[in-house]
């Protein structure tokens, strides 16, 4: 995350009813998806790191 | 709707829209004051406006509001016409969904989140989706589920999935369901094969079951990590991105490929329409092209700098016209409309969403190769066609198609000809009840005639 300001002091102003079912199922879905998401983002970061390292070694 | 609070702006206590002198303003209320200050300081709004994702606005002092509670007043950039999601084609709704997700992801990166995900928060400008609700943001309470998840799925995912797997006309169901298509209804209409789509299995089928099973019980407390939230948004976006229309043909979508016009006559018609448009004074600020088909004549208007809405009843014609508008980058907005059953006023007190005619009259209406479809295809008497045109526009360009025309003959081939009054003289007389004839121009190479009318009361 970038530039995340400290906003916790301000209470959110949600006016929608998120719905019990929608709130519950999204937590289940998001939890299941987060494993794959984490693997994907870590993999991308690793590839980017390796690429930048190989670029710098070529320049040297 | 020329003064006072907009009838659709009452749900969010953060602020509301009001009209003054024909212009829309947004008043910010005290409950959002602190958020507004933080939101401005965050740079999110500037970023979204700079990248063409959010409507630009001017800030006015609180005194410009319509009540003493005003904290500030915004004047968003004017849009030629506010359209409704049930008037959009598949690609328009999909672009609106993807815009909403892009804004959500950008907001999360800066510590903000969308507190609603209504399709009505999106409009179109020069072929591009544009977010219009500047106050839709609240600080991201990391760990809390997204309160607008259900709304996003009802407003965007369900109609897009139905359009993709069942029929593109299903988007019109949004007209019956002003807060989005109920997920159990959408799930019941979907074919079995849609369950192979993992995104739909989660966000539509499982979601629908969860909503049904939850009933009115209290929400269980729970937390969603930052990673889980980002994973959910990424998957929702990917699910929408993958949805597509099956290749298909429609009668109207290919109308111009199947016309009885010779190429030279069509070219002549194009030139004559352009000449008639140039005679309209003062220059129109808004034109409606009724029965626009692939919007080639709408483009003639838009190329002259006239913001034009290309209305057509065929969703595939509107779909193609939208891609044309997007590629051209002109102020041309294709929308779905059945003239025999135009968009009514809907929502709370029948006032939330304006009807087709509420949004007029347009300065200029064009109705090319349309009158025979209304008068013969739908049995609308010519005086009623003329009265409708007078409500729709101040200037009207109409193409008269005589009964001897092969298209009309084809329409009559399967039915009894009860249209004895369908004569050019009767048409001209019906129009003269409301309009003066400025020009009558036969189209070379055809039996058809173009008329330019000016409404008597201007």
- How much β-strand is present in the residues of chain B? 15-25%
Percent helix among the residues of chain B?
A: 25-40%
Q: Beta-strand level of the residues of chain A, as a percent range?
A: under 5%
* Class by SSE composition of chain B: alpha/beta
Low-confidence stretches of chain B: none
Note the overall shape of chain A.
Answer: elongated
**How large, in whole angstroms, is the Cα Rg of chain A?**
19 Å
Gyration radius of chain B, rounded: 24 Å
Percentage of residues in helical conformation of chain A: 55-70%
Please report the distance between the alpha carbons of the first and last residues of chain B: 20 Å
Give unreliable regions of chain A as ranges.
1-9
What does the largest sheet of chain A look like? none
Largest sheet of chain B: 7 strands, mixed
Calculate the terminal CA-CA distance of chain A, rounded to whole Å.
Answer: 32 Å
Tell me the greatest interface: A-B, 32 and 60 residues
Number of strands of chain A: 0
Number of strands of chain B: 16
Can you summarize this structure?
The complex is a heterodimer of chains A (60) and B (458). Chain A has 60 residues and is mostly helical. Chain A has one helix at 20-59.
Task: List the main descriptive attributes of the protein structure presented here.
heterodimer, A: 60 residues, mainly alpha, 1 helix, B: 458 residues, alpha/beta, seven-stranded mixed beta sheet, five-stranded antiparallel beta sheet, 16 strands, 18% strand
Structure characterization notes:
The complex is a heterodimer of chains A (60) and B (458). Chain A is built from one helix and no strands. With 60 residues, chain A is mainly alpha-helical. The two termini of chain A are 32 Å apart. With 458 residues, chain B is of the alpha/beta class. Chain B has 14 helices and 16 strands. In chain B, the strands form four sheets. In chain B, strands 12-11-10-13-14-16-15 form a seven-stranded mixed β-sheet, with helices on both faces. Chain B has a five-stranded antiparallel β-sheet with strand order 1-2-3-5-4, with no helix packed on it. A two-stranded antiparallel ribbon of chain B has the order 6-9. In chain B, helix 5 crosses helix 6. The relative contact order of chain B is 0.09. The interface between A and B is large, with 32 and 60 residues.
């Amino acid at each position: 995350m970038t530039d995340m300001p400290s906003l916790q002091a301000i209470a959110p102003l949600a006016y929608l009813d998120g719905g019990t079912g929608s709130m519950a199922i999204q937590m289940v879905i998001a939890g299941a998806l987060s494993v794959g998401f984490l693997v994907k983002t870590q993999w991308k970061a690793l590839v980017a790191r390796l690429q930048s390292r190989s670029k710098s070694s070529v320049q040297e | 709707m020329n003064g006072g609070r907009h009838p659709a702006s009452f749900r969010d206590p953060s602020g509301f829209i009001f009209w003054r002198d024909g212009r829309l303003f947004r008043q910010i209320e005290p409950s959002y004051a602190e958020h507004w200050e933080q939101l401005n300081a965050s740079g999110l709004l500037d970023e979204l406006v700079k990248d063409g994702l959010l409507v630009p606005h001017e800030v006015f002092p609180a005194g410009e509001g319509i009540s003493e509670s005003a904290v500030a007043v915004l004047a968003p950039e004017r849009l030629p016409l506010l359209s409704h999601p049930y008037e959009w084609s598949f690609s328009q709704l999909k672009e609106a969904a993807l815009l909403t997700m892009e804004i959500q992801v950008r907001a999360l990166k800066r510590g903000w989140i969308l507190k609603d995900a209504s399709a009505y928060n999106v409009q179109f400008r020069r072929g591009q989706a544009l977010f219009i609700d500047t106050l839709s943001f609240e600080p991201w309470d990391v760990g809390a589920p997204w309160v607008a998840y259900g709304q996003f799925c009802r407003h965007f995912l369900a109609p897009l999935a139905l359009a993709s797997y069942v029929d593109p006309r299903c988007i019109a169901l949004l007209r019956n369901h002003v807060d989005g298509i109920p997920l159990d209804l959408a799930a019941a209409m979907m074919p079995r094969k849609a369950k192979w789509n993992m995104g739909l299995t989660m966000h539509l089928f499982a979601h629908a079951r969860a909503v049904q099973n939850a009933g009115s019980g209290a929400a269980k407390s729970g937390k969603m990590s930052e990673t889980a939230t980002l994973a959910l948004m990424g998957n929702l976006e990917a699910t929408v991105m993958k949805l597509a229309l099956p290749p298909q043909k429609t009668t109207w979508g290919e109308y111009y490929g199947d016309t009885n016009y010779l190429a030279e006559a069509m070219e002549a018609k194009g030139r004559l329409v352009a000449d008639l448009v140039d005679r309209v004074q003062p220059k129109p600020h808004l034109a409606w092209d009724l029965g626009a088909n692939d919007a080639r004549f709408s483009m003639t208007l838009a190329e002259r700098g006239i913001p034009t809405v290309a209305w057509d009843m065929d969703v595939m014609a509107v779909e193609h016209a939208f891609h044309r508008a997007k590629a051209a980058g002109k102020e041309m907005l294709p929308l779905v409309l059945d003239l025999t059953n135009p968009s009514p006023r809907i929502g709370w007190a029948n006032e939330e969403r304006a009807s087709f005619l509420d949004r007029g009259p347009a300065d200029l209406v064009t109705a090319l190769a349309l009158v025979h479809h209304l008068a013969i295809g739908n049995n609308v008497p010519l005086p009623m066609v003329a009265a409708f045109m007078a409500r729709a526009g101040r200037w009207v360009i109409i193409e008269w198609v005589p009964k001897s025309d092969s298209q009309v003959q084809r329409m009559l081939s399967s039915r009894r000809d009860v249209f004895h009054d369908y004569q050019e003289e009767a048409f001209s007389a019906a129009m003269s009840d409301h309009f003066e004839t400025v020009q009558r121009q036969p189209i070379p190479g055809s039996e058809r005639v173009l008329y330019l009318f000016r409404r008597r009361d201007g």
